[in-house]
Write a structure and sequence with these properties.
128 residues; mainly alpha; 6 helices
Length: 128
């Protein structure tokens, strides 16, 4: 019988291996990991307050501000002040940002599917 510590070690190594493929896939689309996560959140959730995006992608306020500026400079997002609360800014995808993240997310999803193709439907369900 396998020990808990060995199972943890194997799962950790598997997670790191998947993360390496994941990050390489994202980098191949010209994005870093946090920018991908921000754009993906906006793609699937729509425009969001900048602090909500930061919470969703696990970035500090300072890191989120820097990332938003970087993405805005690239023309991928625009910052829109909340008309009801001057302290709040929402992030919106631009058309260029939407095109990039749709293509990047599709490529990313295909790469992840390739990784799990070794599992049967039953094995996938059991793993989950």
């Amino acid at each position: 019988m396998e020990t808990g510590s060995h199972i943890r070690l194997v799962l950790g190594r598997a997670a790191k291996a998947i993360e390496r493929v994941d990050r390489a896939s994202i980098a191949g689309m010209g994005l870093n990991f946090s920018d991908f996560m921000i754009l993906e959140a906006l793609l699937h959730k729509g425009p969001l307050p900048i602090n909500t995006v930061a919470e969703k992608v696990l970035l500090t306020s300072g890191s989120m501000t820097t990332a938003a500026q970087r993405l805005e400079t690239r023309g991928l997002v625009r910052r829109v002040p909340d008309p009801d609360d001057g302290r709040c800014t929402h992030l919106h995808l631009t058309d260029e940002g939407r095109r990039l993240i749709e293509a990047a997310f599709e490529h990313h999803a295909e790469n992840l599917e390739t990784i799990v193709n070794v599992l049967s439907v039953e094995e996938r369900a059991e793993l989950v």
